[in-house]
Specification:
There is one protein chain. The protein has 9 helices and 10 strands. Strand 1 and strand 2 form a beta hairpin. The two termini are 36 Å apart. It is globular, with a radius of gyration of 19 Å. The chain is α/β, with parallel strands linked by helices. The strands form 3 sheets. Strands 3-4-5-6-8-7 form a 6-stranded mixed beta sheet. The protein has one domain. InterPro entries: Pantetheine_PDE (IPR052963).
Length: 250
């Protein structure tokens, strides 16, 4: 991906992933809109390392972020933008400002709204590091300003009609945090689906909204179900057995 910047973020051009003409050919809608009374609002975002505030796993050799994540090789950014601080995340968040008038109209017109993003808005929506095959994953998955943006749309306390759909980590998830329902239903890689690695229970297709209302109950998802019954203990950095067998103590 190459990012070319002009003097105005509205003129930002992102190329090399999918040409805009291809998106138009596929009739993909990328702007906020209302469908049958439901507000649908896509949110631009990117991750930053400081999103991760939990204790790092120590005593093992963990591959660097650059080795583990293809983004560092596939994306070229202007020198003033970086994942290592919040500049890149803030830049992508600012792109959302061009849609604020439309978003305000949707807020006035719709009592039910779904926002969605590729990246993760809260660290609680990812398993703890000791559970992860790549323990440093939280450093390359999410954005604090994404959560702020979501709260600005759904209001700070959320509501029973507020839902955010996210992706990136490939963990099936369905949970309510501070009044907003957060959902991930990953298509995932074929090998992940075959081994049921994502922690869902026959989750595809995943129904969020139907017949003018949100689903009455949360869907069974391994990790969100786990954390609904068990407190998060990020201070515990002893690797889970299925992770420990891949690492040697240093």
């Amino acid at each position: 991906m190459d990012l070319s910047m002009s003097s105005s973020y509205q003129e930002t051009m992102i190329s090399g992933v999918v040409g805009m003409e291809k998106i138009i050919e596929l009739e993909v809608e990328t702007n906020p809109m209302v469908i049958d009374g439901l507000g649908i609002i896509p949110i631009f975002s990117w991750y930053h390392e400081s999103f991760d505030r939990e204790k790092d796993v120590a005593g093992i050799r963990i591959p660097s972020l650059e080795m583990a994540c293809k983004d560092f090789h596939a994306c070229k950014w202007p020198v003033e933008l970086s994942n290592q601080d919040t500049s890149l995340a803030l830049y992508f968040d600012a792109i959302n400002e061009k849609n604020m008038n439309v978003i305000k109209e949707i807020q006035r017109a719709c009592s039910q709204i779904i926002t969605f993003s590729h990246f993760v808005p809260r660290q609680e929506l990812c398993p703890e590091k000791r559970m992860l095959f790549y323990p440093n994953l939280p450093k390359i998955i999410g954005s604090d300003c994404l959560e702020v943006r979501i709260r600005s749309i759904h209001r700070s306390q959320g509501s029973a009609s507020a839902c955010h759909v996210f992706g990136h980590t490939h963990f099936c998830w369905d949970a309510v945090l501070d009044g907003i329902r957060y959902v991930q239903a990953p298509l995932a890689y074929p090998r992940e689906r075959k081994r049921r690695m994502n922690g869902g229970e026959n989750w595809l297709p995943f129904c969020i909204f139907s017949d003018g209302k949100f689903a009455d109950k949360l869907s069974p998802c391994y990790w969100s179900d786990y954390y609904s019954a068990n407190p998060r203990t990020p201070h515990n950095i002893e690797l889970a057995p299925w992770v420990a067998r891949f690492y040697k103590q240093t």
